[in-house]
Write a structure and sequence with these properties.
Number of domains: 1
Strand order of the largest sheet: 2-3-1-4-5
Strand content: 15-25%
Structural class: alpha+beta
Number of strands: 5
Helix content: 25-40%
Distance between the termini: 52 Å
Radius of gyration: 16 Å
Oligomer: single chain
Low-confidence stretches: none
């Protein structure tokens, strides 16, 4: 009897670097991303700093998303992170809904400390940042 393969959830994110970084610093940030993914059993796809994050073993959760963002905001050289919701169809990034995380947002400092001390759940963290919003479309 063959088992149908389970559809696993993952997410897209786009990382905006601080303007004026040297190419060497940009490559260092990319290598750090790869190291983080390897150490957490994640697989990165996409290109440069527009990345799909998934796992061959399991579906990812909001906790995986927030842990990744929490780790990224503590890296120097990162200006913003655009995080899209969990989806099973990673080949179809739509940019339909997203959370924008600005690393210089003063509210993020307190939120980060609350999350790290486990006083705020991953779902609440994303809601406090504004939740996944859809961009306005002007006709």
């Amino acid at each position: 009897m063959t088992r149908r393969s389970e559809v696993k959830m993952g997410f897209w994110l786009q990382i905006v670097l601080v303007p004026g970084l040297t190419p060497a610093r940009e490559r260092e940030i990319e290598r750090c991303l790869e190291d983080y993914a390897d150490s957490h059993g994640l697989r990165l796809g996409g290109h440069q700093l527009a990345i799909t994050v998934s796992s061959d073993e399991r579906s990812l959760t909001a906790t995986d998303q927030v842990d990744f963002v929490d780790w990224m905001v503590s890296r120097s050289g990162v200006s913003a992170i655009r995080l899209e919701p969990l989806t099973a169809h990673l080949e179809q990034t739509a940019g339909e809904a997203f959370v924008l995380v600005l690393t210089l947002d003063l509210g993020l400092i307190g939120l980060t400390m609350l999350y790290r001390s486990r006083r705020v759940s991953a779902d609440l963290y994303l809601q406090i940042l504004g939740g996944f919003v859809r961009p306005a479309i002007v006709h």
